Amino acid sequence: MSELHLPEVPIPMFEDENQQVVIDLSNNAVNEEALVEIARHAEEVVLKGSQKKSKKSSLLDGRKQVVLSNQFVVGTESGTMFAFRIIRIAAAQIPRGAKEFPDVYISADDMEKLGYSRQRLTSHMRDIVNEIMDYRIRVAAYDKDTNECMQLSAVNVFSKCSAHARQGAMTVKLNPDIADYFLNQRRNYTKYNLAIAASVNSYPAAKLHEVLICRTRQYGVNLLRFSIDELRVLLTPMSKAAEKGKKKKSETAEEKRRREHRQSNGVFANNVIKNAVETINQSTECEVYFRTIRSGRNVVAVRFYVDDYTSIENKKEAFLLREKLGRTASDLERINEILDTGEGEICPEEIIPRLSAPGED
After folding, report:
1. How far apart are CA 171 and CA 110, in angstroms?
2. What is the enclosing helix (H) or strand (E) of 139?
3. Cβ contacts of 165 within 8 Å, gap of 6 or more
4. Which among 46, 49, 149, 183 has most CB atoms closer than 10 A?
5. From residue 215, how far is each of 68, 191, 210, 360 by CA, in Å?
6. What is the pLDDT of residues 24-38, one digit of tens each?
């Protein structure tokens, strides 16, 4: 850092009541040249300090926590996996006790850590901005006595997205209209390590992980049951659900057979849910087992057994604990028996309407 060169005239300084250094200019002892030099030197100090700080604290710092209201977790989201992850990253940057959302700057280095190239924003800037701004969540308000849906609303999750092409970065801000889902969460919230949101790149796995830890903590149980229809809604972004529902104008009998096969409950359970559970077990601090429930030959529900270690802040310690505890043959036999019988299970959708408004959960 360059040295500060000032005139030989002494500069009167003192600390005010806030312990801030103040320069006394009342006697005109400091000339314009000295002020320019002071300003330049101060700018260098601030710049060096900010650069040093940025090296120490990363946007994707594994110690940061994603905090979402339970209502947001069980809501139906619409959009891309890229925008889904950006929401969780933005949520982790909200200071404790904040009254409003901050602007979140996502650098080119952060993009690379998420698995996206630096050219993603420079080459597809318009598409990226559209992905962010088009992302929505659907929320329904129910009558508590009749369970009748009284109001259905779709809200854009972001209020702003600015792409910085030259830097390969962007700035985003969450929508103030959904502040109740993120700010000042004192109860009915889901919290987990940001490293999970940064590493899991599968929408069904990421969403299922949130839903499972949300409900196991909420009801204090390890065993949960969801209808297959409920899981389809939760684990399929609305945009993809709409695309799958479209039929080609000249659909052949073979194409129709393949489409119906892809949409069958059994295939959904054996492909989407199975892969999501495997990803959760490999990439998060949770350990999940599942069993499909059939009515005749048709899959109608899925039962999950969940061991949640996400309350342990250090991810490495959580994995070590999982490894230390292990699973003996008798443990696995007990879990399989629980999954078969469903003894003590909770079915959240039978207790609370699936999509509820803030404060009703």
Report:
1. 12
2. strand 136-142
3. 121, 122, 125
4. 183
5. 13, 12, 9, 15
6. 555 555 556 665 566
